[in-house]
Design a protein that fits this description.
By secondary structure, the protein is an alpha/beta fold. It has 3 domains: 152 residues, Methylthiotransferase, N-terminal domain (Rossmann fold), CATH 3.40.50.12160; 229 residues, Alpha-Beta Horseshoe (pyruvate-formate lyase- activating enzyme), CATH 3.80.30; 59 residues, Beta Barrel (OB fold (Dihydrolipoamide Acetyltransferase, E2P)). It is built from 14 helices and 19 strands. The chain has a 6-stranded parallel sheet, sandwiched between helices. Helix 9 packs parallel to helix 10 and helix 10 packs parallel to helix 12. The termini are far apart. The mean pLDDT is 95. It binds S-adenosyl-L-homocysteine, iron/sulfur cluster and FE3-S4 cluster. The site of FE3-S4 cluster (F3S) has 10 residues, from helix 7.
């Protein structure tokens, strides 16, 4: 039990779900739906890496239920949508995709459609799906993903079910079906206690709770045995890993323990909150060979006035202090950030502070977003709203500046030999492979697809703002 009262979800509860899953599989088997005739499950994931990781659990549960993966939604007997709620755009996109399933359900009345994740963890959205999307069979929230088997079993019996907010614990023992076993996700904590004034995450994910370090280590071992060459530790705010637990293990110690495991692999982590980015964490990045020299440290704004209104709990000077420290200890570090443009009350001078901060830090890459009001968050009531044209114009200027900086930063890799994990066939040029390493951007190079999942040494021959190209040496 964590000190905040959020427990581990009882093993029996997870075991019971796995029993239900196997019972579903037996029903399929009796109906001859195995092998080439097996039912198929299609999963569509929106949002962040946390959702990608959760979808691998959905896929794992679906597999126990006897479902084979479907390539297209048209071929599916079960469609699962894992939604995001971070900005309005993400919700609109999910709703429009769900809307396109109506005709699939008409064509196949046995089709089961389930929607879960951040969007459906808000009551008003779960209600919308219940009332206006009659072809949706069930919703589940971020805390009840492990209940997928019962939800599917009930849907098979013709029942519709819409999740109310649930117990936000941690479910251990949920099977995963990884999409890319060589590049694995590993969730170490869930939830967020920070309540940045614009952010929906604390409402849809509940309070912070951390997995037991031994459970994390066990899973890391399993992933490595299963061929993982890259492990990314995930949490909304990994810096506060363990702070609400009794085990006393920090994220830095956890990372050191993982680095001690046998195997040739690299370790990444995200996301960090600047208010508690510790020296210990910077030391781990600097000292541990397996840790990728990359720090994603979202600043959100360069203006103290706006940071205060955002409830970020640090100042621009504090932030720049962390960056300085990091650059001293890890001279070649890759630093990336998130920026919100057009937060309520952001004036030209505040935006200029953000631009100035970008010039000072010289990030390798920035994810920038136009502020999107979220129902129930304090910022949604803040005034004055920044007109969209103003935000769009600021965004354009920010992107122009950052593209130039990213271009210069990436050029430092020219002629250098970097070690990359070959991840996939390039999405833009199927004759090339794509790999990742220290550069923030993916590196493209030609090579045999059998290299996917292996490390290669690549010399960088071209470097632009958005991608790098190289050749295997
Ligand atoms: N836990 C992480 C990030 C979570 S969400 C952190 O605190 O840094 C990822 C990014 O989405 C945030 O860093 C922020 O830049 C952006 N974001 C969050 N809420 C938003 C909103 N309401 N409008 C626009 N961007 C938002
Ligand atoms: Fe991820 Fe946040 Fe979106 Fe949820 S709301 S999917 S945690 S980015
Ligand atoms: Fe969101 Fe802030 Fe937490 S951005 S996830 S409330 S740290």
């Amino acid at each position: 039990m964590n000190r905040n009262g959020l427990g581990i979800i009882k093993r029996e509860d997870v075991t019971r779900e796995l029993d239900v899953a196997r019972a579903v599989a037996e029903r399929f088997e009796e109906a001859g739906r195995v092998g080439g005739n097996a039912p198929r499950c299609f999963i569509r994931t929106f949002g962040c890496q946390q959702n990608e990781a959760d979808s691998e659990q959905l896929a794992g549960l679906a597999r126990v239920m006897g479902y084979a993966p479907a390539e297209r939604e048209e071929d599916a007997d079960l469609i699962l949508v894992n939604t995001c709620a971070i900005r309005e755009h993400a919700e609109k996109k999910a709703l429009s995709v769900i809307g396109t399933f109506k005709h699939l359900k008409e064509a196949n009345p046995d089709l089961i459609i389930g929607v879960g994740g951040c969007m459906t963890s808000q009551k008003h959205r779960a209600d919308t799906l219940k009332n206006s999307y009659p072809y949706v069979s069930f919703t589940f929230d971020t805390g009840s993903l492990y209940r997928l088997p019962s939800l599917v079993a009930e849907a098979m019996g013709g029942k519709r079910k819409f999740a109310e907010s649930d117990v936000y614990g941690i479910a251990e023992g949920v099977p995963v079906f990884p999409k890319t076993p060589h590049s694995a996700w590993l969730s170490v904590m869930y939830g967020c206690n920070n309540f940045c004034s614009y952010c929906i995450v604390p409402y849809v994910w509940g309070r912070e709770r951390s997995r037991d370090p031994d459970d994390v280590i066990e899973e890391a071992k399993r992933l490595i045995d299963g061929g993982a060459k890259s492990i990314t530790l995930l949490g909304q705010n990994v810096n506060s890993y363990g702070t609400e637990s009794d085990h006393g293990c920090t994220i830095a110690e956890l990372m050191r323990r993982i680095c001690r495991l046998d195997g040739d692999f690299v370790l990444r982590f995200m996301t960090s909150h600047p208010k508690d980015a510790s020296d210990e964490l910077i030391d781990v990045i600097a000292e541990e060979e397996k840790v990728v020299k990359h720090f994603h440290l979202p600043v959100q704004s360069g203006s103290d006035r706006i940071l205060e209104r955002m409830n970020r709990k640090y100042t621009r000077e504090h932030y720049l202090g962390i960056i300085d420290k990091m650059k001293k200890k890890i001279p070649d570090v890759t630093v990336t950030s998130d920026i919100i443009v057009g937060f309520p009350g952001e004036e030209d001078a505040d935006f200029e502070d953000t631009m100035d901060l970008l010039r000072r830090v010289r990030y390798d890459m920035v994810f920038s977003f136009i502020y999107s009001p979220r129902v129930g968050t304090p910022a949604a009531k803040m005034t004055p709203a920044v007109p969209h044209e103003v935000s769009a114009e600021r965004m354009e200027r920010l992107l122009a500046l950052q593209t130039a900086v990213s271009d210069e930063r990436n050029k430092r890799f020219l002629g250098r030999k970097v070690r990359l994990l070959t991840e996939e066939i390039s999405r833009t040029d199927p004759s090339m492979l794509t790999g990742r390493g220290d550069p923030a951007r993916p590196v493209h190079f030609s090579g045999d697809p059998s290299l996917i999942g292996s490390f290669v040494d690549v010399e960088i021959t071209e470097a632009g703002a958005f991608s790098l190209t190289g050749k295997i040496v």
